[in-house]
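protien #1 (seq + structre)
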Amino acid sequence: MQSQQDYITLEQGWGKMQEGFDKFIEIMEGGFREPFALSLHSELYTNCYAMCTQKAPNNYADQLYQKYAMIYETYLHATVLPAIKSKKGEAMLHEFAKRWKNHKLLVRQMWKLFVYLDRFYIKRISGLPLKAVGVQKFEQVVFNAVKEEVRAGILGMIEKEREGEDVDRELLKSVVNVFVEIGDWRPLFPTRVGEELGDIGVARFNIYNKELEQNLLATTSEFYARESAQWIATDSCPEYMKKAENRLQQEVERVHAYLHSVSEEKLLKECENQLLAVHQTALLDKEETGCRALLREGKTEDLARMYKLFTRLPNSPDCGLQPISQIVREHIVDVGMSLVRKQEGEKDHSNYAQQLIELHDQYLALVNGPFGNNTLFQKVLKEAFEVFVNKDIGSTTTAELLSSFCDNIMKTGGDKIEGEIDSILDKIVMLFSYLSDKDMFAEYYRKQLAKRLLLNRSASDDDERSLITKLKYRCGAQFTSKLEGMLTDMNVSKDGQNNFTQWMKNNDINLGMECSVTVLTTGFWPTYKVDEVNLPNELVKCVDKFTQFYESRTSHRKLKWIHTLGTCVVLGRFDPKPIDLVISTYQACILMLYNQQEEYTTQDIANATKLPMEELKKYLQTLALSKYQILTKNPKGKEIADTDVFTFNRKFTDRQRKIKMSLLVTKVSQDEKLSTKQTVDEDRKHAVEASIVRVMKARKTMTHQQLVMEVSQQLMKLFKPDPKVIKNRIESLISREYLERDKDNNGVYKYLA
């Protein structure tokens, strides 16, 4: 049994601890002008240790733990709470912040004295750690008693700041931090001891959220609801957006200055809802300053601000970027359709493609710049252009006009556009991607490319290949296979021409003139009409010799001569001076007749050359009624009759030594346009049938609706198929026994292997 001298009684021990507590309070209330003596600290720690390690019934750990909580409660009730309540307004907030700061110091000091409890006793009983007890008592006694006044003071200061007054941000930060720190005690007192005890702080922002943040969000919403209602009634759209942008920036700064970062997203969401979402429709639709007006006037800075603001909101048909994108789409369609209407009223459409490119550049810059290259705006740009790019200009399709534009910039003597040709080609391909009739463009382009290559009018082989490569990348190898084949034929023909020259040299053959022949592969090139024309003897000799050479090289291929796109250089011996004439083969056939006699009637020339009368009259017009009058017509007049007489014009002269006559074939004739459309229609029928067979082969059985949808989807890359055409092709395939109808259901098709 312990003697009285061997242990410390509860009264003695606690009396010493109380003295230590009072001493620290005295020092703290005096502003820490003197330190808490180290000897006193050691004495009190030893006292606590002894009381906790004495054997029962003199072990007072449990009583010490209870009195530790009570000592806070007594002090807070007696000193701290009255000090706070005695003050009002900002003075009260200053006192509240100061008392919490002192309380944290007090808790830290007391923990150092009672730390033995934390290490062993509390761990054993799974009790609340000492620091948590200190914070809990402040919450129960002080915080709960004054939280409403403190909250009102905080919210009042925030509202004053929003209205333009200066406030003490450091004070606000200190007071707001109390709401956060009470909810999570552990980061306040870093230590290695006792930190793992309990799970305090899991819901660390519960108090901050419940006691301050919820009210802050409600008052914020009310404030901006009032303010935005005033703005929308009086301000223009750009002015409103500048004010909203400024307010949002202020709220971000406010969070960084004295609120907790967890509030930023929620606070901004309230602001965005009241400033932007609530008034979005009214703001965008403002008649003279809304989104449409900004687009019309090209106000890129305001549009960029609009995008930046409304990208904050979730997207829906009535909210966020979606309504803006629809207005942009409507605007682009309106501008595009006005361009189409303007073109319809003009006779010359040659600049239409250039205007489309400029229009696309304008709105692509808008999408890439103010609208941040957002995919939503990329999509509406594409959709808008697809609307008017696929409108015909009179009887001419955009596919034809775009192809003609390409032809004009790719051929020698065509319009040269400033800037890199590669950049222009990229823009052409971009417009091409909006066409629904891509196959129509391909067919026109193929015919024009053929003329450029065969008449030696192509300005650059590299540019030709570059455009074909870009189209290939966009539509696949099958789309450009014929175009690539044409370029390959031209290269092969150059080698063949060298071989022909060498063959004639080896066989001592002299044609008396230069002869160049281009051999084309039938499948790659457009189909040309073959006229049974009577060639001059000089040309007949060339044809015979090349045929002989070609047949000596291959026996599997047969040559078919097409003179439509041939060219000749003939020397005209006029009285003033001789002039070289660059003319077509058919023009040469006509002029070579004048080596035999001076004049012929139209009928005589037709009989001699075997040219169809319609064609002949066109060629005679180029020789007698155009800029260069090689022949003279009698009687004079623009109309040509069968009995009109054409005489060689010996008096003809020109400043140049060599002149290029109009070749007729360089321009796309109405017949060619018609044949192009017929060719495309025929090709589409085959493409539709091939697609139907592919789909049915894979699926075996399909309903009519499913089949039409899938075939349309497959062919959409080349053209927009007409459902009626698909239905006709299905009927054709059924009649040829590729498909059959289901016996029980007429709307279902089966594939026949």
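ok now protien #2
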Amino acid sequence: MRSLVMVVVTALLAQGYAAPTAKSDVLWPAAIAQLVPMPQAVTVSATTGGGVELKGGVAACLSGELFGGDDGRLARAVRREIAQHEAGGVVLALEPRLDPASAETLCVNEATARGMTPVFLVQQAAMEGFDQGENQAQLHGDEAYLLDTGGAHVVIAAFGEAGAFRGMQTLMQMCFHSDIDAEVGRKGSCRIPAVVIRDWPDLPNRGVMLDVSRNRVHTMKTFELLVDSLAALKFNQLQMYTEHTFAYSAHRAVWAQTGAITPHEALALSEYCYERFITLVPNQQSFGHMQHWLKHTEYRELAESTVGSRALWNFDYCCAMFSDSELLPYSLAPNNSSLSLLGGLYDELLTSFPHSRAVNIGMDETYDLGHDVSRKEVARIGKTTVYANFLNNISSILQHRGAHAMFWGDILFEHPHLFLKTLPKDSIVLDWGYEADAPFANRGTALKSHGVKSYVCPGTSSWLSLGGRVTNALRNVINAAQSGASFGAEGLLITDWGDGGHLQPPVVSFPAFVAAADFSWNARVQKSSPGWRGGGGLSPEKQLTMGGVMDRVAQNVDRIFLAQGAGGVVGKVLMVLGQVYSQVGRQTIPNRSALWDILMLANRKDTWVRKDVMIGRNIDKTSLTSAIQSLNSAQLLLDAAPSSAHAAAWAARAASWDSKLVYEELSWVLRILLVACQLGLLCVSHPAHGRSCNLASLPRKDTKDIVKELDLLIWKVRDMWLKRSRGGNGFEDSLLRLRHTSYVLKNGEHADWNDTLHEFRGWFTQAKENATQKVTHNKMHGDIEGSAHEL
């Protein structure tokens, strides 16, 4: 059905919309309780019993000077929202000087004449039922809205266009969820409960940060699909963590062959985000983590230490290319030459990301500061002061360009009293912590007491795990959101890292995205201070339990990302996969899974990656057997995945992820984790196991079948990767990591790293030749799409 939206543009700054009589002691209807994010306050209307039906299409009437005209951003967003759900509609722009009553009457009349349901979106300076004050919009934010579905027609009141859009999203989500759960697709019609929703976010900034520097850079199609999903979850910020994967015009040597994001692509994606009420924020490491720049001869003179340092952890599992030298120059020297480089980078970023005046400059983990170039200055005034001076100089560069800095707070928290007096007032500290018990509350409260702005930054716990660590991720997110809401953080930024080659597919991070969206909007905490913005909105019959959170997250992964209702299995499978890590145990340092260590660290050039990491230290036969049972149960769930026609129809119109590919990716994760479990069992049973698992020492006769499976999975991940993400040397590097595991298992103690590299290059060359042959075959038979995929 072709969709149009009726837009009525008038000049209405009403004195306040008053919702009809409502009662709050009624359990929330299912269509409300499953909304994500959860609304702050919901009352069930006493005037309408069974709900209201949106039928014949939606006539959305925009009434407010700040809402723009029929070609404004809000109008375009509402069109897209309705068209995506095939609700139908028309567009109508009226004289903006119409009085409020006339505008609403005209909206109803025009909708009735077309046989549609009127939805009246009205801009207001104050709304009934919200905290009273001189400026409600400032108190609750521009995303606040009131949605009333209990009257003669639907009304959405808001302070500005962002709130009007959020209200429209909630209305459409109610309609959409009722349809997919009923396994129907009612074009232009759905039934929703009669309620009054008063809603606003606890944290004004809610973002996702994607790691695009650890080998995986998505295609533009995947980036856009992800943005659509994040918009549906009401995120309003996106960052792409960048070390060397932005195509700066003057620095081709750094980003060549990486699949780098071009300025043109960044600008297009920035506009795509803006249309969906998301700000794309530039992100560029500016001190540490610069090894991909400094390893090139033309940039080495900018390094703090040109020879690298043993003080760093072994980066072959984390941040460098697997084929790189372990001793790489790492941090910039804090001097004018480095500042000159950074100023040029920021100029290009601010042009390519025009809707953001913030730049995430990184600044974390500067472990080699003071080792060489800055040694004398560090000895003279101290390492902390040298760091603070460089940070302030970078902030000044941005201030001169009308921008401000965001930076990771780990170095600041080492000696906060030395930073707080000189910290630029417009800077934002990003307080990161990726374990469940990260001390967000203590650190954030201390920053707040000194007038310093901060974000809380939990993680998806997907990296260094393959299948995720979902229970840790959810506890980490809830801790961050509730701490941030309590002390008044500026926002929450959930980080999705790719340490170790970014082999986990995107779907593994979906549960954490859902939880972060849910709890950063409504943290489910209450506070009695007069300035408190939160509503503490819990469905009346619900208590906040981890089991309840996991069920809610699983259901909404299926609904939001895959347009699947109660029969969806992806969320359930992710809950199983994400708990396997806790069955097996973990290594002695955080942010990792023991199964990942067995598969990806037990075969490295140096088994002892760090003195406190002993591969397989905590594994035993019982825990590994239990993990295998869980993985088998997840496979049974996946085998029962829905394939009904209605799911395919919803997916086509709901900007959802291709369920078939998601199933393939989850199957790959299951199988690779089973390989890790099987290797773990061999390590446990092998006499030489001791306290560390060494794959090279395992008998070849026992690993033969495992190697066959692993080789098949390497081919499979090659194919899946290119359906989501770009090729390039990062892609090759991730395959090399798995290929090295296979080579070690085949050759045992005789395996040599140089032989691995030689063998991989031959294997990869053959893979390219096979792909070329397929392209030729496809072109001969007219399969243009297949040819494009192979290339």
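The radius of gyration is 27 Å.
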